[in-house]
Specification:
Layout lengths: L2 E8 L2 E10 L2 E6 L11 E3 L5 E2 L2 E6 L7 H4 L2 H7 L6 H8 L8 H17 L2 E9 L7 H12 L5 E7 L10 H11 L3 E4 L7 H18 L2 E6 L9 H11 L6 E5 L8 H14 L2 E4 L10 H6 L4 E3 L16 H11 L5 H10 L2 H6 L15 E3 L5 H7 L5 E4 L2 E5 L12
Parallel strand pairs: 1-4, 6-7, 7-8, 8-9, 9-10, 10-11, 11-12, 12-13
Antiparallel strand pairs: 1-2, 2-3, 5-14, 14-15, 15-16
Helix pairs in contact: 2-3, 4-5, 7-8, 8-9, 11-12
């Protein structure tokens, strides 16, 4: 046996348990009084919660730690009012790509992925801008990091035409080249185009590239405060037309919060037929997807980090517990049942949205898990601290200790 985790609390059963790990898999889960086989390492969870690791289904990794380069103008435009100036913000933020290099993106993104390991993020759908200014520098950097962190953090590289496709001639060819180089997912952002006709063309061309190359689609849709944006419908319809059911995810979809209820219900039915998953990042803008409405309707919904210290969000540690903690306030989720739903949205549901298999914590499953700081989901979210231990493939890849000394002098 490689590893034993003692006194673990689990989400699906009461009491405390011993997890036996060998050959990179969970061999057994047994009561605490049963004998423990010899092991190279024993971890005492001390009653804290042990769960599947975290999955980030939406991160603009190529932009991380660029806020000081971009300045505050784009940030102000993106986060003001009901996000009517989102396009202006994106255009302002794009200026920093004129001097972007593979080396610079790699250094900033590597720092984020090291934090991913520390915070127990097992997989991330990572967006890399593709355009005629930055070229493929973002994609090349993330592909190199995908190889560097393989087996610890699974990086799904999304080739993402942030500045448009129709309005930016030459970008479509770069998108195709990015896939040829090894990008895992084809991205899109149709609402950035100038007309509805061009937005529809954007969706069609992106989905066609994905269909031809056997890739998934991750598309930023309805991402501004405009109820006339209906690009989620375009995406779901395109996936259905090409038989790509369950092969796409809608990112943000913020304007769905403004849709009249009759249209929203029709759209939900269409998305359900297309097997479309959704990712919301409510902490990065004043408008967000109606998360629980979609989840209650049977759609897979995830929460993502979105940005880390860039032109759209000034904070971020790649801590998905922190993301869920913020979402609990923004989505008015307070009960234990609601908190458990949020926790699923940064673990198992997030995995489903990006096409990963969910194994759970049980015999035969890969030994990928986090030993949290807290005995319940509520406690873990309240602390939103790095896991005590992060285990991948039966190996401890990160451990974090927290220690404080408090000295009180009596009068």
């Amino acid at each position: 046996m490689e590893l034993v985790v003692e006194h673990a609390s689990l989400l699906d059963r009461p009491g405390q348990w011993t997890i036996i790990i060998g050959n990179g898999k969970i061999q057994a889960i047994q009561p605490p009084d049963d004998p423990i086989p010899g092991a190279a390492q024993v971890i005492d969870a001390d009653g804290d919660l042990v769960t599947e690791p975290f999955v980030d289904s939406h991160l603009h990794l190529c932009k991380a730690h660029t806020l000081d380069l971009a300045g505050s103008a784009a940030l102000s435009a993106y986060t003001s009012g009901t996000m009517g100036a989102a396009m202006t913000a994106i255009e302002a933020a794009a200026l920093i790509k004129e001097t972007q290099t593979v080396e610079a993106v790699t250094g900033r993104a590597r720092a984020v992925l090291l934090e991913s390991v520390r915070h127990g993020v097992r997989a991330v759908q990572a967006f890399a801008d593709v355009d005629t200014v930055a070229g493929l520098s973002g994609v090349e950097a993330l592909l190199a990091l995908r190889a560097e962190f393989a087996g610890v953090v699974d990086v799904q590289v999304v080739a993402f035409p942030q500045d448009g496709l129709i309005r930016a001639p030459g970008t479509e060819e770069l998108l195709v080249e990015a896939v040829r180089l090894g990008a895992d997912v084809v991205g899109g952002i149709p609402w950035i185009e100038y007309t509805d006709k061009d937005a529809a063309q954007h969706v069609t061309r992106v989905v066609d590239i994905a269909h031809r190359t056997g890739r998934r689609v991750a598309m930023l849709v309805d991402d501004a405060g405009d109820a006339s944006l209906r690009t989620t419908e375009m995406l779901a319809a395109a996936l259905l037309d090409r038989g790509m059911i369950g092969r796409g995810s809608a990112q943000h979809a913020r304007a769905m919060a403004l849709y009249p209820e009759p249209y929203l219900r029709r759209l939900i039915g269409l998305c359900r037929a297309a097997g479309l998953g959704f990712v919301s990042d409510p902490h990065t803008g004043p408008l967000h997807l109606p998360v629980f409405t979609l989840a209650d309707a049977g759609l897979w919904v995830a929460l993502g980090q979105d940005d880390i210290e860039d032109a759209y969000y000034p904070f971020g540690r790649h801590n998905l517990l922190e993301v869920a903690f913020l979402a609990a306030h923004l989505l008015d989720a307070r009960t234990d049942a609601e908190l458990h739903r949020l926790y699923d949205m940064v673990t198992v549901d997030a995995a489903r949205v990006i096409g990963r298999t969910v194994h759970g914590i049980g015999p035969g499953a890969p030994a990928d898990m986090v030993v949290l700081r807290g005995r319940t989901v509520r406690e873990a979210l309240a602390y939103h601290a790095p896991p005590r231990h992060v285990i991948v493939g039966g190996r401890v890849v990160a451990s974090t200790e927290m220690r404080s000394e408090v000295h009180i002098q009596s009068r």
